[in-house]
Task: structure prediction
Amino acid sequence: MEDLIQLENMIKVTLNRIRPYIRSHGGDVEFVRFEDGFVYIQMTGACDGCAFADVTIEEGIEELLMDEIPGVLGVLLV
Result:
């Protein structure tokens, strides 16, 4: 359980690093949960329903999390 809490904190810290970029486009990203290797997020603001949200997730958020946090297998939008 403590390991899960540590992983979730690492995920949140990493998301905070990319958050200014996302906010500069009028959106935001929110951590929902980490389960079975996948980070579940919600895109809000201008990013919610944006045609480029998938690109932001796959080429930005997912790449960063998978590179920096062991055990992250991918990012899924909820």
